[in-house]
# Entry
Amino acid sequence: MTDEILNWGLLSTAHINRALIAPLNASKRNRLRAVASRSQSTADSYAREWKIPRGLGSYEALLNDPEIDVIYNSLPNHLHAEWTIKALEAGKHVLCEKPLALTLAEVDAMVAASQRAGKVVTEAFMYRHHPQTLRVRELVDNGDLGKLQMIKGSFTFTLTRENDIRLKKEMGGGSIWDVGCYPISYARAVTGAEPLEVFGWQVSGPAGIDETFVGQMRFPDDVYAQIDCGFKSPSHAFIEIVGADGTLNIPVPFKPGKKEKFYLTRDGKTETFEIKGQELYLGEVEDMADAILLDKPPRISLDDSRGNVAAILALLESAQSGRPVTL
Ligand SMILES: NC(=O)c1ccc[n+]([C@@H]2O[C@H](COP(=O)([O-])OP(=O)(O)OC[C@H]3O[C@@H](n4cnc5c(N)ncnc54)[C@H](OP(=O)(O)O)[C@@H]3O)[C@@H](O)[C@H]2O)c1
# Structure
């Protein structure tokens, strides 16, 4: 054990930061010390609003700050790889928002930079750390559903903000990068495997990004997954896992709260699992501290994140070509 405390810095004033601020303030091994923005005045007012000790007027200033141990990279998707690599080269550990990167070459460069620097990088897929997800995976791994057959999952919401980064192709916009990545990640986690073949369809918006995406994935051992995502339907999410002996229904799979329920149906009877959860974003913060201070492998390895990026790219390629894509 160590009584060391990790000093964190937020790389940008992104909306999502607010999800991490409370867990960082609550955690005994982590402490939020600085926020960086492209503009000093934005950094200063953000620091005042969220009671962060220091606001820095450039991203470089945060990376060069000797007090900071860990960077939270909450930049738009197209800047994840670039700034994660810069942070590693500056000797920082990085918790990087999803998707980890937009190409496999970017992921590989992040892996190499992490190895060179000897620093931790992991993707901020918060749902993976929640007790509900851990329990679901345990049930599947224990064979409570019998042989796995099919995973179905959905994540949609209505995107009304006109200038949102999610609508900009050059920033890695599109619904599959933004929310489709969740059911894809869930299906890969539950199967413990990578898809062998995928097929995808997309409905493109005026900016050329997918506003709706529907995909199918064939995993080894005749396990299949169907996912959909989009910006055109009201908030909707679920995961259903079908085995030869039973079905799991998880109504709140990606943003589970402090009390959650999911359901296992076998032989016509439904059993309810009540999960005492935790603050959703605390898990990724504590996982980072375990990895850095206790030398534990992060729960989400870079190999795992690479698999998610590969599956998304293959689905997008399939939607473009109108043909199945083999991985
Ligand atoms: N895990 C989750 O639950 C979750 C939820 C939402 C989003 N996310 C991820 O978090 C990331 C940020 O999403 P968000 O919705 O929070 O983004 P956002 O509010 O639009 O913030 C992005 C930030 O990036 C900085 N930035 C740098 N270059 C930029 C550019 N060219 N255009 C726009 N902003 C630029 C800006 O900060 P400054 O002006 O301060 O420099 C801006 O505040 C995305 O990768 C997204 O996938 C994750």
User: Anything to note?
Assistant: The radius of gyration is 20 Å. The pocket of NAP is lined by residues 12-16, 19, 37-38, 42, 74-77, 97-98, 124, 126, 165, 178 (CB under 6 Å).
